[in-house]
Amino acid sequence: CCVDAHFHTACHFKQGLITGVLCCRLPVKRPNIVVKPPGRLQVYRDFIFLLTCQASGMPPPRLLWYKDGRRLASGNSRISVLSSGDLLVTLARRSDTGLYTCEAINEEGIDTASSYVSVAEYTSGCADDSTDGLHMHSDIQACAGEWKGHVKSAKSLCARGWRVCNPRDQRSLKEITSFEMFDLSGCYAYNAASRKNKCKRWEKCVPRCEHKGVCISHNRCRCASGYKGARCQLPVCSPGCGSKGQCIRPNKCRCSAGYTGRTCRRKTKPCKSTCLNGGRCRRGKCKCPGSFWGKACQYPLQHVLLTRLNRTE
Q1: Are 140 and 175 in contact (CB under 8 A)?
Q2: What structural domains does the chain harbor?
Q3: What separation in angstroms does the CA of 236 have from each of 231, 249, 279?
Q4: Do residues 100 and 115 lie in contact, with contact meaning Cβ atoms separated by under 8 Å?
Q5: What is the pLDDT of residues 272-298, one digit of tens each?
Q6: What is the pTM of this model?
Q7: What does the DSSP 8-state code read for residue 37?
Q8: Tens-digit pLDDT profile for residues 148-185
Q9: CA dihedral 5, 9, 15, 20 (to 10 degrees)
Q10: How far apart are CA 157 and CA 142, in angstroms?
Q11: Please, are residues 255 and 247 in contact by the beta-carbon 8 Å criterion?
């Protein structure tokens, strides 16, 4: 029989030799709801809403949903529990308002999470009583249409009691998520002017353009030759420094240890000994300054003269 304990090698099934495997129960663990529904949720009538509930535990817990303390029946065509454990409600009604509770249960215990859902009548902020986006927001909506002149003239597209959004509506504008913006099928404007409906020209670059770059508009730099980047902070090396170098100024690369050349792509041949006294390693040999000599530039030039004088004497 094969035992995978001593030699640390896997056991392969062999007909007539191995009958099966020994299975051990995983350690039990109480349920824990790791993805909970929101504490409160407001939706409009005839809309769809989803309450998330995902739990961990061993054995894997069962997920049950309750509304106002009563278990939701499985025969309702508008309300269904997905395979993930989430609760999906379609064509929301005023009667769907209430406290929804997710219960995760296994033989070790129970964990619960609740969400209060309120279903309200939908009120459009558009003059034609239709909304092209941002349905889930009560204070801001996207209204389709045309206008002439400044965007403030588009107030005719807004319903009574609504206006074209402006900087005073920053709180509502900040509630729009990036997902909701990408979900809009079109481009929707608002009045961004901050001083009596007039846009102020603002040609300032913060931080400033570097390396003699010129600020041409708000946070836009025109870079001098040899530099690039939002602030002209990056030098340009042509054709580049490769993966073993760094461009430190226009067409000048600083190579990593062991590499040389204009583009840092040629490996250097190391010298057998460290070059001393200002000597530099060139193709495996030390190139010494004028006042030193030797394989490692270890001898001063006076040493040669003294040696010759000693031989003469």
Answers
A1: yes
A2: 29-120 (2.60.40.10), 280-312 (no CATH)
A3: 13, 7, 31
A4: yes
A5: 888 888 888 887 888 898 888 888 888
A6: 0.44
A7: P
A8: 888 888 888 998 888 998 888 888 888 888 777 777 77
A9: 40
A10: 10
A11: no
